[in-house]
Amino acid sequence: MNRKLGPLFWIFFILIVLVNLVPYVWTVLTSFKSQNQIFDAGIFPDPFIIDNYVQVILESGFLSNIWNSFVVSGVTSIVCLLIGVPAAYSFARLCFRFRNPLFMLVLFITIFPGIFIISPLFDFLRSIGAIDTYFALILPYVAYFTPLVVWILTGFFRTIHPSIEEVAIMDGCGVFRMIVKIFLPLSIPSILTVGIIAFTLAWNEFLFALIFTSSESARTVPVAISQFQGVHSLDWGQMTAAAVIATIPIVLISVVLQRYIISGLTAGAVKE
Amino acid sequence: MRYKYLPYVLLIPMFVMIIVIVFIPLLTTLTYSFQSYQLSDPNADRGFVGLENYISLFQSERFRSSIVTSLIYILGSVGGMLILALITSQLANQSFKGRSLFRASILLPWAVAPVVAAQAWKFMYDADFGIINQVLSGIGLIERNIPWLVSDNLAMLSVVTTNIWKTTPLLTLIVISGLQTISKDLYESADMDGSNAWQKYFHITLPLIKPFIMLGLIFTTLQTINVIDIVYVMTGGGPGEATEIFTLYNYKVFFQYLDFGLGGAMAVIGVIVVGILIAFYVRGMSKNMDA
């Protein structure tokens, strides 16, 4: 099926690519401009300066926000995988009662609005003195992102043909040994992909981070960026520099691993 | 494969987390909604007040307006996303030079944090030096700068646009996964019958991806009300309460007015609405499977 694509196709192609890229590219360009030039017209930075980055890194507490986000997202994605891989294996490979209703439940947990359960969690974390700690963020993140990890991984696991596992079992291999020796090595690419997706979600999360942190000791990147203006009184140069620093790793990973991430995000939806 | 306990054992850690972090707080929120519970005065007696919180909610003009605002925000966002996602997924599913650039450009808004998206768009919408006004006046469409974020309807339009930009990729990806399940044979036999492209789209493609569209719609709808980030950063719910969606108002009741009783009642109403939405979806899906 190699028919020619019409002009309408390419018009849409260019429009969609532009609309998707422009807001972010504009943010990147702004971050290299001086305060004066930001208020003037002109698309490209002239002169091209890196002062905004220097100030964000040296003067504001932004580096500690990055570190907080890194620790919280890293631990979250690892714990999500530790809990999620066995659960996804169960959904993908084993037969049991209530499998479909439980799988549906998992699906809906992933999209259940967090604000509706946040006040008792806040009370609980405050009573154990955990507000403004990494724990306060990792706990709800693991609860919220594990179901999504399971949902996507189940889709991935179902695409792996079970015949090798069945042969191993018939040869008298125990089920746990089979999972560790045969199943997991086969699914490492999908597990890594889902780990990256969980990391991204935790890295970008805002609501829990806004409410459960109160100082720089645990405040993560999204909260810092949302409050940037208040502290630096409308300094768009520094704000955009911070936004670029905060998103460049995630954006690069998604673009480089584009194929894997798209197949990950679409795997869950297939064959419900 | 059949094992008696193994399936459940593997699921236990996840469901323990879900019960502790989602279900127990859900029940606790329900009890808050019947109490007079002010966080500003934690030592005061948290007395049982019956339906008082619910009654004062329904008498509140601001609560009703937050429901209307949410509906406009959701319908505007999800409607726009659906049209764009159908077009984008159709393009992404062709094979052509530049497809990986195209797919990477779809992923970019997905990867960027909502807060960053909101700040980027807020900057572009800025009345005095935002690029949108600069472009519009540059090509002579407007004479005076438009105050996008400080007039009621335009502020709504601005946050809806931002939300569409940020969340359409999710819907697009779900629709793409639907398109990938369709066998090419169907199109070939339609070709032999002499069907044109539109007929093929409406008679083959659309019915087959309908379950995926439904799934995508419920995902993006809940995502739209769940993520208060965009409205919080761009307008804070303003001007006035023009963009104050339900969940943002609920956040303010909890953590600005520190009223956990009233906020609890709001949350319970929100849970009921979300529950009804999901029930409709599940019913629609099971009908679809029977057919």
Q: Which residues of chain A form runs of ≥5 with pLDDT under 50? A: none
The assigned structural class of chain A equals mainly alpha
Described by the principal axes of the CA atoms, the overall outline of chain B is globular
What is the number of strand segments of chain A? Answer: 0
Rg from alpha-carbon coordinates of chain A:
23 Å
Oligomer: heterodimer
- Rg result of chain B: 23 Å
Topology as H/E string of chain A?
HHHHHHHHHHHHHHH
Task: Tell me about the largest β-sheet of chain B.
Answer: none
For CATH, the homologous superfamily of the domain at 68-259 in chain B is named as: MetI-like
Number of helices of chain B: 12
Order of helices and strands of chain B: HHHHHHHHHHHH
* Structural class category of chain B: mainly alpha
Helix content of chain B: over 70%
Main location (chain A): membrane
Protein name (chain A): Multiple sugar transport system permease protein
Organism (chain A): Salibacterium halotolerans
Subcellular location (chain A): Cell membrane
Question: What distinguishing features does this structure have?
Answer:
heterodimer; A: 272 residues; B: 291 residues; MetI-like fold; 74% helix; 0% strand; Multiple sugar transport system permease protein (chain B)
Account of the 3D structure:
The complex is a heterodimer of chains A (272) and B (291). Chain A is mainly α and 272 residues long. Chain A has a single domain (61-267), classed as Orthogonal Bundle (MetI-like fold), CATH 1.10.3720.10. In chain A, 74% of the residues lie in helices and 0% in strands. Chain A has helices at 7-31, 35-39, 51-58, 62-93, 99-110, 118-127, 134-158, 163-170, 175-186, 188-204, 207-212, 221-226, 228-232, 236-256, 258-267. In chain A, α5 (99-110) packs across α7 and α7 packs antiparallel against α10. The two termini of chain A are 29 Å apart. The relative contact order of chain A is 0.14. By secondary structure, chain B is an all-alpha fold. Chain B has a domain at 68-259: MetI-like (MetI-like fold, Orthogonal Bundle), CATH 1.10.3720.10. Chain B contains twelve helices and no strands. In chain B, α2 packs across α12 (260-290), α4 crosses α7 (152-179) and α7 crosses α9 (197-226). The model of chain B has no long low-confidence stretch (mean pLDDT 89). The chains are: A mainly alpha (272), B mainly alpha (291).
